[in-house]
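Q: Structure tokens for this one, please.
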Amino acid sequence: MKTTHPTRHKGSPDPITVYLTFIRRTDIGPALFTVTDVKLGSRTSTLHIGLSQIDPDGNRREEVAGYITISHIASEEGPTMQTAFALTPAPPAVDFNQLARTGESGEWKRFEVAFASMRKASRQVEFYAPSVPGMMKRGFIEQWARFAPYGKVERWTDETLGFLADMFPMMLESFDEKPWEKKAREKKEKEEEKDGKISPKGKFWYPTILLNLDIKKKLPAEGVEWMYSRVQTKRLQNGRMDLDVIIMDEKGELVALSNHVALVIGAERNLSARKGNGKAAGGESKI
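A: Here is the predicted structure, written as tokens:
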């Protein structure tokens, strides 16, 4: 927007909503983003963005499609009202200086992500969670997070909110324990682990089908060190689940809301080689 439409939205465009549909699995490597102007308005503009990559057959195919609504938050006008919304129960108290220095503060402690070889994105964040017994029985998980790409602590900015909205490994690891069938496959799991077929943790892949992001406020230009997330799943049905994400800053102010639809499938699906859209010898489809 700044380069193609520099006079729109006072030359300082802010994304206020993001809608993403994940069509196919992406791959590590080059990707092409194609941006199309859907609407250019005075209050809001809408862009369509597609992410495409080259498949194994050498064809380019779209893998993610999204719509982003642009505004200028500082000049938005209209009614504002503080509702009775509050996190219930409230998060445990925390001392950020102590947390950063020792990795623990009160009920909060550093959370180590399991099966990080597959969940590579999660290695770019430091997660801290309260050591509350039976947390998932409450129906949600909560975390404080610091952005630490390649092990170097940075600050969360507006540009990183979409990434943070998709980072909640503790919730996913609660599903790694198979709460829906605690005993049915214990023997099989032990055999798999003994044979080295799969790690004891991280047995599942959680591909996102849909992700919405509603940005409520801008972060300071210099960014912030700590961001809070609370994530809740209402129902897991036939391997498909919903996720509601609330993101707040250090002051307890609402920064963004996010809603996801995701699948729960075997980790081997993510580790297997990608297939193309073409046809193999003899006319048989590769897919």
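A few notes: The chain has two domains: 8-73, 96-203+219-255. The two ends are 38 Å apart (CA to CA).
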